[in-house]
Design a protein that fits this description.
- By secondary structure, this protein is α/β, with parallel strands linked by helices.
- It has twelve helices and ten strands.
- Helix 6 runs parallel beside helix 10, helix 6 packs across helix 12 and helix 11 packs antiparallel against helix 12.
- The termini are far apart.
């Protein structure tokens, strides 16, 4: 029996954790555990976790919901769904769950999660993943998912394929739209192209995406930022699609005028932000690879001042 632990039961962790808990309740194949906090944890313990979808809702009860990893024991698979700025601290709190063979699978916005994990657990297998889903924590104990998109990509650049195949099968059994990627770096960086550029520019200019695209000067700056992003990816030997720039701009144009990034919203609300993973990472890569990325640098240093 596989012991699967999901840490961070927000929009992403709650939705996919909910699908896993629904299917594997009382199953000999897998046990599902939730790591949650505060009122959300209390609600899950008392009433279960409710997933609201447009076609209906369902409520699940994991094997255990807790904020104390020592109550769970060693996990076979640990799915990490916290914010990037909480990852290092979260990993230390999860130490009782992490044995020498525990596989760690981060589903975070940035591309530096594997480096952060290996700095703390250098010998554990770390897979990579990303998801396309619109879901959020609506209230304690309730996850609301909207739209039809719910793709779940995962893979590894070095681990044995038999374990990947085992979890691919388990995910699919739980009705997760799991896709085992043969080039997971390409998959993750394709998503990161959009997330990093949109988060950086909406936060830096303090504008929604539509307002940026309709302003000729700001649109050109966004396009130059994309060029800088692509130059870093190419230097890192990431096999991005040849039309990634055009594809990303087209996606931006297809979104509602008022659309913005979660990082921009966090800056507006004076909350902690993912600046270091979404913008700072690119600046650090530019310095390391000796590639000039002046727009990223300008935006990053301005946002550092705004953060203080």
């Amino acid at each position: 029996m596989k012991k699967i632990v999901i840490s961070g039961i927000g929009g992403v962790g709650g939705y996919y954790g909910g699908l896993l808990a629904r299917h594997f309740e009382n199953s000999p194949e897998a046990e599902i555990y939730f790591i949650a906090r505060r009122a959300h944890l209390v609600a899950i313990r008392e009433r279960g976790l409710t997933i609201e979808e447009e076609q209906g809702s369902f409520t699940v009860f994991p094997k255990l919901a807790t904020n104390d990893a020592s109550q769970i024991g060693k996990a076979d698979l640990l799915i990490l769904c916290t914010k990037s700025y909480d990852l290092a601290e979260n990993l230390k709190q999860l130490a009782p769950c992490i044995g020498p063979d525990t596989i760690l699978l981060p589903l975070l916005n940035g591309v530096d999660s594997q480096d952060i994990i290996h700095s703390i657990y250098p010998h554990n297998p770390v897979w990579k993943g990303c998801v396309y889903v619109i879901s959020r924590l609506a209230s304690p104990g309730v996850i609301k998912k909207t739209g039809e998109i719910e793709s779940f990509f995962f893979g590894s650049t070095g681990d044995a394929t038999d374990k990947l195949d085992i979890y691919d099968k388990l995910f699919k059994e739980a009705k997760i739209d799991a896709r085992l990627s043969k080039d997971i770096d390409r998959t993750v960086w394709t998503k990161f192209t959009f997330i990093s550029t949109v988060a950086t520019m909406t936060s830096y200019l303090d504008k929604c995406l539509g307002a940026i695209l309709e302003n000729n000067d700001e649109r050109k700056e966004m396009e130059k930022l994309l060029d800088e992003f692509i130059s870093i990816a190419q230097a890192k030997k990431i096999n991005l699609p040849e039309d990634i720039k055009e594809r990303t701009i087209k996606r931006m144009e297809s979104l509602p005028y008022v659309m913005t990034s979660s990082m921009h919203s966090d800056f507006q609300a004076n909350k902690n932000t993912e600046l270091e993973s979404l913008t700072g990472y690119m600046v650090r890569m530019g310095e390391e690879l000796n590639i000039p990325i002046p727009i990223y640098e300008k935006a990053y240093h301005a946002l550092l001042l705004k953060k203080k």
